[in-house]
Amino acid sequence: MAETTLARLLRRNARDLHGRPAIREKDRGIWQTWTWRQYHDEVRDFALGLAALGFKRGERLSVIGDNRPRLYWAQVAAQCLGGVPVPVYQDSIAKELAFVWNHAECSVIVAEDQEQVDKVMALRAELTALRLVIYDDPRGMLHYKHDWLRSYQSVQELGREFAAKHPGYFDAEIEKGKPEDVAIICYTSGTTGNPKGVMLTHANAIALADAFRQADDVRPEDDALAYLPMAWAGDAAYTLFLGLVVGFCANCPESPETVQRDLRELGPTTVLAPPRIWENMLTSVQVKAADAPAFKRWVFERFRAAAERAEILRADGKPVPISLRLACMLGEVLVYTPIRDQLGLRRAKWALTGGAPLGPDTFRFFRSIGVNLKQVYGSTETTGLVSLQPSAEANPTTAGRPCPGIEVKIADRGEVLVRGPVIFKGYLKNEEATREVIDSDGWFRTGDAGFIDPRGHLVIIDRAKDVGALRDGTPFAPQFIENKLKFSPFIREAVAFGNDRAFVAAMIAIDLNTVGNWAERRGIAYTSYADLSQKPEVCDVIREEIRKGNETLPESTRIRRFLLLTKDLEADDAEMTRTRKVRRRFVADKYAPVVDAFYSAGRAVELETAITYEDGRQAVMKSRVRVEDVDAPPAAHV
User: 400-442 pLDDT, tens per residue?
Assistant: First the structure.
């Protein structure tokens, strides 16, 4: 039978790619490698162990933790038995975990380590469907004695015993699988309320990989870094699905703290990262450049500017003058190659950004230094893929061409509609919501506003519900303005307001590391994020950064007033999703006094900010925060 399920693809890889590396993990500074044959055997042993413990077709298994081979194997093992993996965000607070595990009725949870097991234990009484918890890392688990708790190794040992008594069971279960079976349930980011469980089938997963392979170059020889949250549909699509279909090697870093070091050491050939990662990389480069001696700083700025001019000309289809080409050739030796090496992008044949819009300035920076950065557009409901930019047509303003087999059209009000084999099966336990987004002809309503440009590229403006207009009728797309601000290394997050208002205003969260380093170099003492953010000197720096951003905006949409928050926007406080998208409705309600002050000529506002801890406890932080005018003169500092 053809490889119509992910489980059959695993079996094919074990046969055809048996000696090739399938997955690696860095442990105690050493990369451990498993071939596709070993990957298959690890999955088989764990799957049979689950079968011995009563795991049935249709049951749901959740994984929680950082990217670890055993957590990927657990998901594939569930699929081999006809079960459904449900990955969750490892940094979720208790309330979020309880909702997903109960909503999905997870009967088995595979946890990375003691920390994650403790989260499950704290919620054990609430999880009515849960009957088995399995842990990967045994450190700290010696005195945990429960009949529902087992180690990963013990389950695999049980699986080997089960195999001896039931030969052929594993292959027989794989053969029962159908393309239309649900392969994974990924929960949406929940920007407007509780997340929804998106059911993606094996057919969806394989269609995604086939469409991607037709649109871009991906091969079994490739190396990818598996570091993004497993609960994010992007990781499921590009690490799990594409990895099984293509047969490339996924590499798991030692820890979240060592990702940048491991990225540089590995030098992957393919890279996928959301905008926040690219923004952080750019910030690190900018900070190092600012700290460099004057001559090195001059060299960096001179060749960065040359590369950017050349990139703009290439993107516009114009010839690059020979003098500029020569400058870029010299810059390749002195600046661009060293930067790519420092960032771990020296071997990358392509790099993708997706999940949210990336600011054009950030996009151009990476393109200009020789990183083949391209935008990909998709959503959880489209298995993570709709359109992708060809390498020769990468542009910061578009999301690329629709991939082969995927149709895109624009509805009357500008909403992007998508149809094709990547469209999800439906929302778990929510047929009404499914009918609202998929019409009778199979078109999925993405909720994004956009259009098709003359070249056939899809252009995404913003979330349809977020696009509005200023009082004078000028179109207002908050994400576009926010991305301009976040190009600054001093600004971590920004929320723009302006719909039905006379002008644009913004709340800004500073980047603690960058601003902190800047303050220390100038001898500015501070005690906390809140203290630093309210320093007059910091206010002046941010005001100047906003002015720089305003220069690239139409006059009617330039920011006139701003406020520096006393804390970063946090997912734990429901201000952001786990994928760092602003929950605009919640933020607008929570910070209503700030919005009122912006548009009532207020000079200060009293803030009571609720802070949520991982276990669900809350505290309230009170502060008085100044509202600033962008065009105000700099303060006189004593």
Answer: 999 999 999 999 878 999 999 999 999 999 999 999 999 999 9
Same domain, 396 and 432: yes
Predicted confidence at residue 546, as pLDDT, reads 95
Q: Residue 246 domain-assigned? A: yes
Taking Cα atoms as reference points, which of 326, 330, 233, 227 lies closest to residue 271? 227
> Which of 82, 115, 88 lies closest to 103 in space, CA to CA?
88
CB 233 within 8 A of CB 186: yes
- At 6, list the tokens: 């992910």
Domain span at residue 624 reads 468-629
Return the sign of the alpha-carbon dihedral for residues 274, 276, 282, 285.
negative
Q: Is 471 helix (H, G, I), strand (E, B) or coil?
A: coil
> Which one-letter amino acid corresponds to residue 333?
V
Which of 166, 206, 199, 227 has the alpha carbon at shortest distance from 44? Answer: 166
Query: Does 565 have pLDDT greater than 70?
Result: yes
* Same domain flag for 265 and 299: no
| 258: exposed, middle or buried (Cβ count in 10 Å: 0-12, 13-18, 19+) | middle
pLDDT tens for each residue of 459-484: 888 777 888 889 999 888 898 888 88
**Locus of tokens 């009617």:** 556
Helix H or strand E segment including 510: strand 504-510
pLDDT grade for 526, boundaries at 50, 70 and 90: very high
- For 205, 207, 346, 387, the CA distances from 214, given in Å and listed in that order, are 15, 11, 24, 12
Q: Residue 601 has what pLDDT?
A: 81
Q: Which amino acid is at 536?
A: P
Helix (H, G, I), strand (E, B) or coil at 74: helix
**3 state SS for 20-82:** CEEEEEEECCEEEEEEHHHHHHHHHHHHHHHHHCCCCCCCEEEEECCCCHHHHHHHHHHHHCC
